[in-house]
Amino acid sequence: MNPARPKTSPTPTLAALSLCLTLFLTLSNPIWGQSAGGDLPTEPSVALEEEIVVSASLMELPKHRLGSSVTVIDRQDIEARNKDTVLELLRTVPGLEVATVGGPGKATSVFIRGGSSSHTLVTIDGRRVNDGTTGAFDFADLTADNLERIEVVRGPQGLVHGSEAVAGSIHIITRRGQGPTKPWVRAAGGSDGYSQFGAGVSGGDDSVDYSLSVSRIETDGVSAADEAKGNSEDDPWTNLTVSGRVGTSVWGDGRIEATVRHVKGDTDVDGFTFGIGPTDDLNAQQERSLTTATVSLRQPINEVWTQSLTVGSTRDELLGKDPDDFFSNFEIVSRNAEVRTQADLSFGSGELISVGYAVERREAENVGSFDESLDIRSLFVESLWTLGDDVDLSLGARRDDHSVFGDEATYRAAISARLGDVARLHGSFGTGFKAPTFSDLFFPGFGNPDLLPETSEGFDLGLELAFHDGRVVVDLTYFDTDFEDLILFTFPAGFVNLAEASSSGVELTLDWQASELFQLQASHTFNETEDLATGLQLARRPEQRTTLSLFYRPIDKLRTTATVVAVSDRIDADGSDMDDYERVDLSVDYQLTERWRPFVRAENLLGSDYSEIPGYTSPGLTLVGGLSFGL
User: Fold this and answer.
1) Is pTM beyond 0.90 here?
2) CA–CA separation, 576 vs 71, rounded Å?
3) What burial class does residue 319 get, using C-beta atoms within 10 Å of its C-beta: 0-12 exposed, 13-18 middle, 19+ buried?
């Protein structure tokens, strides 16, 4: 809590009230979700039992066997929401906040459970894409093209991923082709000169599968600097994304696959005037190019042992241009390459063991300031035991050898225990760390090669209840994380390990599949954060956050999706209060024929006037309509 601004009990938002009312009606009225014969089965549904998560453990496991808190946005959700960018898909994830500096294509930060934007590890097809000079990932240019699913894992994840997974991790997975060859095309246009065109092809069988896509987005955008303060120059954005995934079976049950994603985003940006804040800049531009590539081989050796080998690389370049401002001209390049091998052992007793080793090379260049590289060697192991038929217990440890600051050890223990037919207890306790960035270590005059890594230690404990054959799932989770040795910039000392912070709270989620025609997903997150040096709430981390997603088919061919996000109780970096806001989005599409589907979406349907970051514009009502073939 922020002692500088005492609060009474927060006034519930419309979304929070709706969540509570829906939860009450769902659990108190057994009519919803009944089978045709009126029976009320209590066993969890097969769909729940078989959902596989690939990023929350060293092993690929069904979600019900995981102790960690995980949210999966699957292909069905992605198609129903009709969103063009990953950041828009993330807005409804519990425990996660999105903040954008202006309109489309502008710098975007993600915070998980009170951690900073550099405390969330982001991967694309297993390749880490966090920037080497900031430690964070900017979601501004990451589109939803050719995606199979997004997995968000909350809580420290150092065991699985090493550096950057201090508060959680986000994993972007490219679509795997299946079935006969299917070409597809999608075109759209809308407000603020928005246009989008994409095309691709996918298909596959037991021996070979493939999915390829290319898309381009253009928009005139809005003024990044707050239009309410007289700024009026539009800041356009263009984006080109090419992605692909190709796989084939080898040596019997083995599989080799390659994925690639190339993103190029160009945008105009605004400047900053001291004493005024963000202001129009007629000439400032930024260009970004991100390329990731991965080749992986997975081969069963025998009935017990499966071996995998992965080789991947990432290159991220950010170029700033402004003829009127010397400091807005820059070129920053980050490169990352990794070789990873892992053995997965499965024993008849129900015990699973994964052990692996990785070598990573990181390079970063800030032209005119530094050009440096470092190495990280990692050894990791995790074991999963099944106790009886109802309890899964995992324990793992990892050691990362960093060529600059030395060794860092992380660990995690997790449990998933089914309690009778409808309840499941889940929990985890673990640690994470973030290695100092290249800027922290080497920036001329201020870098500090003696820095220690930032660290976290946290746990969560939750109870999941599944009713009506698994069509109603409610989860209540408490979490608590401590952050230590956080790196701050001080003058004249430069970068030093000074700060500590804490974050705790509760996440309540509901997934209600009332029928084949209606589904509701809802969440409410209460997150209390504190800077332990000042006693203040951490900046831009809302204390209250509520989301609702309604999927409804009034007739078989017509699909509607509505989302509500309500945010309250935030402060800015200077300690000032930030506005509460509610945002409503709507998507409608119609299956005109087997292959043709027109659609329309409205973002910020009610035209809410709010700022995700003070001084910058959050767009008002935005309308987009389009037509897709083959999707």
Assistant:
1) yes
2) 32
3) middle
Mean pLDDT of the chain: 91
pLDDT digits (tens, 9 = 90+) for 14-66: 444 444 444 434 433 433 333 333 332 233 333 344 589 999 999 999 999 99
Q: What angle do CA 528, 462, 571 make, to 5 degrees?
A: 15
366: left (phi over 0), alpha (psi -120 to 50) or beta: beta
* Residue 257 phi, psi (nearest 5): -145, 155
Q: Which two tokens stand for residue 216?
A: 């381009």
Strands 120-124 and 168-174: parallel
SS3 state at 160: helix
β-partners of residue 513 are 519
Domain locations along the chain: 47-629
Supply φ then ψ for residue 117, to 5 degrees. -65, -25
Of the candidates 278, 381, 372, the one whose C-alpha atom is nearest the C-alpha of residue 617 is 278
CATH 2.40.170.20 is right for the domain spanning 47-629: yes
| Rg of the chain in Å (alpha carbons) | 24
Q: Which amino acid is at 144?
A: A
Quick check: bond before 542 cis, omega within 30?
no
For residue 568, the model assigns a pLDDT of: 97
